[in-house]
Amino acid sequence: MILRRSGVRFHLTKASRLAAAARQLPELSAQLASGGSGEELRLYLVEAVNGLGWKEASHFLRNIGYRDLAILDRHILRNLQHHGVIAAVPAALTPRRYRVIENRFRHFSRETGITMDELDLLFWSRETGTILK
Question: Tens digits of per-residue pLDDT, 48-92?
Fold first, then answer.
């Protein structure tokens, strides 16, 4: 069987990872309903769901209502560098580096009085000229 790329990231493994996650739904749902903090649930998701990283787990949790988690993508990292929160945009984000930068972002957020979610939108709109995200 020949698989075409067609613009889908990780096209060779995506379907099997989604199927595995679907089989985990009862366990994942129970864990999400447990009342754990966003940080606890993110760590659980990263460890339990094959192929789910820190940024993706943070994004998922923010989309279902958890706050105070950073989605450290390129626009956030560039803006954190611009504001002196980090010295440089890292080439790669290890779990440890992700948490260190997230903590710096959280501190910056509290200093400015703007939540990380709102700063994310502000940074995005400054780069794109739109507030749609």
Answer: 999 899 999 999 999 999 988 999 999 999 999 999 999 999 999
Q: What is the dihedral of CA 38, 113, 89, 73, to 10 degrees?
A: 50
Supply 6's token pair.
């067609």
Q: Which of 14, 55, 120, 133 is catalytic?
A: 55
| pTM score, whole prediction | 0.81
**Quick check: is 68 catalytic?**
no
Considering the candidates 14, 68, 73, 133, report the single residue annotated as catalytic.
Answer: 73
73 is catalytic: yes
Phi, psi of 81 (to 5 degrees): -65, -45
Give domain 74-128's CATH number out of 3.30.160.270, 1.10.1670.10, 1.10.287.70, 3.10.450.50: 1.10.1670.10
pLDDT digits over 40-55, tens only?
999 999 999 998 999 9
